[in-house]
Amino acid sequence: MATPTPAPSLPAMGDPFHLSLLRTPRGRFRVSLPPGGEFLLGTPEPLSRPGAAGQSFCIPITEMVGVQLGGSGSPPTVEGNQFTVFFVQREKRQRWSLGSLEFTVAPGSGLAPRWVDALQRSIQLHGVTRPRKLLVFVNPVGGRCHAGEIYRDRVAGLFALAGIQTEVIETQRPHEARELILQQDLGDLDGLVCVGGDGTFNELMHALISRTQRKAGIPEDNPAATLLPPRLRIGIIPAGSTDCICFATVGTNDPVTSALHIIIGDSQPLDVCSVHHHERLLRYAVSLVGYGFYGDVVSDSERHRWMGPMRYDFSGFKAVLCNRSYEGTVEFLTAGGTEANPRDQTRCRAGCLVCSESSHQLLGRSEEEKLPQQESTGAAVSEWQREQGRFLAINLTCMSSACPKSPDGLSPSAHLADGTADLILVRECSALGFLRHLSRHMDHRDQFDLPFVSVHRVRALRFTPKQLEDSEERERPGCRGWKGLLRGLCWGEQPLSSWSCDGETLPHADISVRVHGQLIHLFARGIEQKMGLV
């Protein structure tokens, strides 16, 4: 691990450059860096001029990207009467951009380099969570196949401006990033960054979690093992087709916004599901573990990769027409307590109180999943429940799973870091009824307010499908009456569905899932509440 540098101290406030009359493109301002150096403040001079009061500025040091001598459009200089401050500027729809403000000092005063030095030391003092060295993985073939261009044109310059040292690896083959993370010395790094889609992020996440458990001697194949959170955070520069993780943790899939969150050192804990088949770890998941409809869509789409992104629409259309349901038993450990209501209309946002209050409670829950009946933790009571029957869809998600096509997501009130997941059970129904359920994901109506849909907040899940040898050979209701091409679309499917785990098809239908609270941390802060622009 890199040796931390001593925290710098600010110069005495008696020095004149902490309160200076400086010129900006907006006019003359009385600029100050108050005691503690937490904000850069500017008041128009003279204050009596029309509209002056509304032109004051306040730039938080924690959201300052960098400062340099010279103007914003010119290379940094060692001399001159100008310096520029670069900072986070909020735009609409959760987007951030790089703002800048140029300051001009009196000729011959020597104040410009002194201001730059003071501001840089303030950034270091208040930016203890900022990364100084990052390992960046660029997936050139992931998502929209523009990852390399996105990083070079929109992100690399921001990292350089912030003084972040980077090692960039453009992957050439599958699992290359995983192999490097498992083998390489990461001791001098402050984080990992992936430039790609959700699949690229999942590869980094799996490798980082596995590396941490191996070094700690923790057996990942043991479903009851308490996993150790990795030291490194993960940053995501979105360049995929859905970018579900970014939408849930940042609120947008804009690369510049994500890069700025990384630069200022934001940290967002995230719950992770481990998925096991008996005593074998299959995968980790953070967004969706789905059986039935979503499992069918993902597995079928793999047969039509030649169609590109359209394959998902085709496979989804086909799955709705076929309207297949699957028989099995779902057992789940409820979360219990007042937080266990996935229909309470709350939203997980930056500084979420539910997630914050859950942090200290997570420590006492590591053994809870093994209890056969119920267990009391404080005021909360968790118990195993069981449902049997035929299901069109079984969905488990640790986050809202929102995306442009589904603005509220699969479970709008799911929380990022409360140690729970939302389980959505869709029982056998007509194709029209299921289509109504799906359509409500796109128009902000309550997708759970249907007689064949139920939702539960859970900490663990077990699923046992009805075995093939015990199943009656009968024609599925969704295929009755279909003839010709439409019947051919639904013919020949397996009686068992497949589980889709964050877009990857699992080889087993009988699985157990456990939620590990706040197992990883991202360079993010959650979706911000609406607020004024900086």
Secondary-structure blueprint:
Layout: E1 19-24, E2 27-32, E3 39-44, E4 57-60, E5 64-69, E6 82-90, E7 96-104, H1 111-126, E8 133-138, H2 147-161, E9 165-170, H3 176-183, E10 191-196, H4 198-216, E11 233-238, H5 244-249, H6 255-263, E12 268-277, E13 280-285, E14 289-292, H7 293-301, H8 310-322, E15 326-334, H9 353-358, E16 374-377, E17 380-397, E18 421-427, H10 431-439, E19 453-465, H11 484-490, E20 499-501, E21 504-505, E22 511-522
Parallel strand pairs: 8-9, 8-10, 10-11
Antiparallel strand pairs: 1-2, 2-3, 3-4, 5-6, 6-7, 12-13, 12-22, 14-17, 14-20, 15-17, 15-19, 16-17, 17-18, 18-19, 19-22, 20-21
Helix pairs in contact: 2-6, 3-4, 7-8, 8-11
Keywords:
disordered N terminus; 11 helices; alpha+beta; four-stranded antiparallel sheet; elongated; about 525 residues
* Termini separation: 36 Å
What is the share of helical residues? 10-25%
**What is the total tally of β strands?**
22
Helix segment count? 11
Question: Taking Cα atoms only, what radius of gyration do you get, to the nearest Å?
Answer: 26 Å
Largest sheet: 11 strands, antiparallel
The multimeric state of the shown protein is single chain
The portion of residues forming beta strands comes to 25-35%
Q: Low-confidence stretches at least 5 residues in length (pLDDT < 50)?
A: 1-16, 366-379, 471-485
Question: What is the global morphology?
Answer: elongated
Give the overall average pLDDT. 86
Estimated structural class: alpha+beta
